[in-house]
Amino acid sequence: MIWAGDITYVRTWEGWLFLATVIDLYSRRVIGWAFADHLRASLVGDALTMAVATRGGHVDGVIFHSDRGCQYTSAEFAELCAGHGVRQSMGKTGICWDNAAAESFFATLKRELVYRHTWPARAQAKTRIVRWIEGWYNARRLHSTIDYQTPNEKEDAWHTERQQAA
């Protein structure tokens, strides 16, 4: 399994809201996210912790790819990864294409939701973004990279195939 992570920001009337996500590259499902009003390493750590929990807590051998942002290169994040048996992978400095799946997700989020609204409060933006991720992106939005399935359908098909093979 390979996961990708990145951080983006949303402008609210209260100030910036930062969003870190973890995407399963097989299914394109967003399996972890975290929000904060800061860019400390704990932001990406919280997103990874959610992803680990989403996958049942046992993720030994997962490769986690990110850019070289200070949050991902921090000792705090490295320790969290090591504690879960997650191997870190990082793109080259200044090359956004190395993390294209995460960048593409944020472009879609901003185009389809964030830029269409004004956000008076961080809490309002959080609620709408989570609803968009779970109710639209993972559950109903078709993805060309996974044969025009939704991320949830792709994962369901994978589980069905494994059960039938057993």
Per CATH, the superfamily is: Ribonuclease H-like superfamily/Ribonuclease H
Poorly predicted residue ranges: none
Number of strands: 5
Given helix and strand content, the structural type is alpha/beta
The residue-averaged pLDDT reads 94
Give the helices and strands, then pairings.
Blueprint: E1 2-12, E2 15-24, E3 30-36, H1 41-54, E4 63-66, H2 75-84, E5 87-90, H3 100-112, H4 122-137, H5 151-165
Parallel strand pairs: 1-4, 4-5
Antiparallel strand pairs: 1-2, 2-3
Q: Any overview of this molecule?
A:
With 166 residues, the chain is an alpha/beta fold. It has one domain: Ribonuclease H-like superfamily/Ribonuclease H (Nucleotidyltransferase, domain 5), CATH 3.30.420.10. Helices cover 41% and strands 22% of the residues. It has helices at residues 41-54, 75-84, 100-112, 122-137, 151-165; strands at residues 2-12, 15-24, 30-36, 63-66, 87-90. A five-stranded mixed sheet has the order 3-2-1-4-5, sandwiched between helices. A hairpin with a 2-residue loop joins strand 1 and strand 2. Helix 1 packs parallel to helix 2 (75-84).
What distinguishing features does this structure have?
about 170 residues, alpha/beta, five-stranded mixed sheet, 5 helices, globular
